[in-house]
Amino acid sequence: MKTIGWGIIGCGNVTEVKSGPGFQKADHSKLVAVMRRNGELAKDYAARHDVPKWYDDAEDLINDPDVEAVYIATPPAFHKEYVLQCARAKKPVYVEKPMALNHTECQEMIQACEDAGIPLYVAYYRRALPRFIKIKELIDSGVIGEVRFVTVRNFQRPLSQTKEEKLPWRVIPEISGGGIFHDIGCHTLDILDYILGPIKEAKGMAGNQAGLYEADDIVSATFVFESGIQGIGIWCFSAFENYDQNEIIGSKGKIVFSTFGSEPIALITEEETVEFPIENPIHIQQPLIQTIVNEINGKAECPSTGETGARTSWVMDQIV
């Protein structure tokens, strides 16, 4: 297979461990260039991660002939702009989640890539992690019977900062698309899409209870999958504890798991409880990156595309 040369636009915190090294460690993949608007920070990242080139202008990176595919790791407000630039350059593009500020932007990105004849991938990397693949295998095996409903509960303690400190971009709607729900709730909604199929209907309520910032800090939702499975969810980011638990309940049992934790998956039936301790890799995006490299080389398919990523954005739009 051909070795794919990657460029990163926006080499911030997410690229330090979660994603960046994955482009260097995946088979038939190499990281050849990085870009950040602050050139000194881009230069520093390149030096620390042994990357040959660095830029302070995205267009220069995209047009570098050694860059054959581009990973966009900026906040969502900039995703569409950079994807359209990659489409014009006819280079495969891998964009962080959530895919864009809203579903309308997602559709524009998909259309641009289709017109250019290039693939578009989204960083819902849990679709390639062993623990979530195991959950899907358990569901598909019928061990809990016919799936009836899903519950999602995700709570976090409030942000701890003084009024003088700058708010993180994740709670600035014009940059993130919403609040923390958009930043992390999307992961659970997307992995449920992967495990149980697309959601066809969703509605909800969003509010701001703690008043720490303008974005919503609590979201509740009800949703229905194309299969008829129903779901409910509550996300609260000003609670007294951190809590993350999902349940998929069937006619013969249930599966309990967290989206972000590493505790074992629990399979519970009337006869027994079985736990599956499955650790995540250090570079958590590497398995999905490998599927992208394989697909570009015509050897396999990536499970997280522009189409699947847009579905999750559509669900979030309906909920809030």
Question: Care to give the gist of this entry?
Answer:
The protein has 320 residues and is of the alpha/beta class.
Order of helices and strands: EHEHEHEHEHEHEHHEEEEEEEHH
Q: Shape, please?
A: globular
Question: Can you identify the CATH class of the largest domain?
Answer: Alpha Beta
CATH topology tier name of the largest domain: Dihydrodipicolinate Reductase, domain 2
Q: Please, what is the CATH homologous superfamily of the largest domain?
A: Dihydrodipicolinate Reductase, domain 2
Counting H and I runs of at least 4 residues, what is the number of helices? Answer: 10
Task: Describe what this molecule looks like in 3D.
- By secondary structure, this protein is of the alpha/beta class.
- It has two domains: 4-126 and 284-304, Rossmann fold (3-Layer(aba) Sandwich), CATH 3.40.50; 130-280, Dihydrodipicolinate Reductase, domain 2, CATH 3.30.360.
- Helix content is 32%, strand content 25%.
- It has an eight-stranded mixed β-sheet, with helices on one face. It has a six-stranded parallel β-sheet with strand order 3-2-1-4-5-6, with helices on both faces.
- Helix 8 packs across helix 10.
- The longest helix is centred in the middle third of the chain and has 17 residues, at 180-196.
